[in-house]
What we know:
single chain, 111 residues, alpha+beta, 2 helices, 17% helix, 15% strand
Amino acid sequence: MSAHPESEDRLSALRAEDHFKIWKSLEDQRVCILCEKKFNGHEVEITWSAEGRYELHCPTKECNSGPHQWVYPGSLLISDIIGRTGGVPSAKNETGHQPSRRHRQKPATYD
C-alpha cells in the first residue's frame, strides 16, 4: 500500500524509521550508496507496510535501498579510504610515517 504523508507526518516517519541518521528537517540531504543519487526528505519514497508501519525507500526508480544504505553528503566510505591508501589505513605520527620500534620512546625508569 502506498502512502503520501503530509510534511509533518513525513518528517515523523523519517525520524521514526531511519535508525541510522538524524532528520532535522525535510530539507536534510542524503546520498544513496547503491545508486549514488542525492535526495532530501521530500523525495524519500514512503510506503505503509502490511505490518502497519512506514517503510523508507530511495527515490530512484528501480533502487531498493533503505536508510541503512544512505549517507550524509560528503561522507567518506571505507571503500573511498582504502582506495586512496591502497590498503587499510594505519596509525601514523605527525610526519606521516609509521613509528619504528627503535624510535619509540622508552618508558622512564626511576631508581
